[in-house]
Amino acid sequence: MEGVATMVTYSRPSLREDFELAIVCALPLEFDAVSLVFDEFWDQDGDRYGRARGDQNTYTTGRVGKHNVVLALLPNMGKASAAGTTASLRSSYTKLRLVILSGICGGVPYPGDKVEIILGDVVVSKHIVQYDYGRQYPGQFVTRDTVDDTLGRPTKDIRSLLATFETEHGLENLQRKTSEFLIQLQQSAETKGRRFRYEYPGTSQDILFASTYVHKHQEQRDCSCSESSFACEVAVVASCEELRCDASNTIPRERLGEQHHLEPKKEGSVAQQPKIFLGGVGSGDTVMKSGQDRDKIANAHGLIAFEMEGAGLSNELPCIVVKGVCDYADSHKNKMWQSFAAATSASATKALLERYTQTDQPADSILRSDTSPMPSVIIPFSRDADFVERGSILDQVHRNCAKQGSRTALVGLGGVG
Ligand SMILES: [Zn+2]
Ligand SMILES: [Zn+2]
């Protein structure tokens, strides 16, 4: 059968209970990127699944690879919004086994010895640390320790999935598939005429300043904050160019010099090959915008990235954060990398789901071959009042079925008896 592709079509699930996976996004930009990795939508002609009483969320349903997935957009950023939305999600979709939080985050540039994270890379949470949950002592903040105390351990299901990616083989495979899906996503954005094309912004735009070098007016003639250790209100929202942040304070990144990092144009799409990192992800209610605090907190808790929703989600459902690095969580951050990072996250999410093992379903609800173009539906019949029961024969059948190892054949014309 070599060379003959078997056409497989997937039937639309009939119930909300058929969904085991959800993807949650905090920003419309993230949601739009994820929508491009769906292979099929189940609700293009209107919502079919409804929601539980009291649930205010709006859902998009469809298929990503072999999985049915429900996609939700949070009404706001942050932990409280994430927790509320996820609680409602759980009330409507009661059989969810895993939620992936897909989107953008701030990366820790050097999370460990010889480990270098650059913009566009993807982080996958092994555990989530609510780093701003604890006690403020004079001059010192003590965090309640990691996930084990505050958020519960990741489920066995999640741990076994992530263990695959801790092997070099598994991680290489995940990265290769992510790059493939990224190219498809970029092409799809172009075909659909999307506002964002999710292109790689270029190595020259990936700038890391020394953690001690603060984003403020750099020259005395511009502003007096140049003499202070803090930025003035104007500087906080200004760009590095406007403030004259000095390139001599940037840290050269080894990986940006690598040849394969930026691929030549491929059918109109520039494809970067993001690396994927597994580790602790810091989740807090404040935006991390300080290089020095970033490094201090990351060192203390073994973090590779910072974001704002993971803690709220993982309180409610088993959750993995899969986020693209769009800045270095310092004061110089800007929005230039957001759409590309959202795209690498969406692509990695799809690659990760490909490795996720599905639980057994009634065969009917998963696959059917292309030989039957009509969707199959099971309609439960109520008992027919005119049914004339042949009691003694049925009793005989029941007795036979109850005997272990026995086989019973019912022979006759369909619909007659
Ligand atoms: Zn200033
Ligand atoms: Zn700056």
Describe the structure in your own words:
This protein is an alpha/beta fold and 417 residues long. 28% of the residues lie in helices and 18% in strands. It is built from 12 helices and 13 strands. A 5-stranded mixed β-barrel has the order 6-11-10-7-12, surrounded by 5 helices. The chain is elongated.
- Unreliable stretches (pLDDT < 50, length at least 5) are 259-270, 363-379
**Number of helical elements:** 12
Name the helix and strand elements from N-terminus to C-terminus, one letter apiece.
EEHEEEHEEEEHHHHHEHEHEHHEH
Q: Which structural class best describes the helix and strand composition?
A: alpha/beta
| Share of residues in strands | 15-25%
Tell me the distance between the termini.
43 Å
Shape: elongated
**Attached small molecules:** zinc ion
Number of strands: 13
Strand order of the largest sheet: 6-11-10-7-12
Walk me through the topology.
Blueprint: E1 8-10, E2 21-25, H1 28-35, E3 40-41, E4 59-64, E5 67-73, H2 79-92, E6 98-107, E7 122-129, E8 134-137, E9 140-143, H3 146-150, H4 156-164, H5 168-191, H6 233-237, H7 240-243, E10 276-283, H8 291-301, E11 303-307, H9 310-314, E12 319-327, H10 338-354, H11 363-366, E13 367-369, H12 391-402
Parallel strand pairs: 2-5, 2-6, 6-12, 7-10, 10-11
Antiparallel strand pairs: 1-13, 3-4, 4-5, 6-11, 7-12, 8-9
Helix pairs in contact: 1-10, 5-10
The chain binds zinc ion (ZN) (2 copies).
One zinc ion (ZN) binds at residues 215, 240, 243, 245, 332.
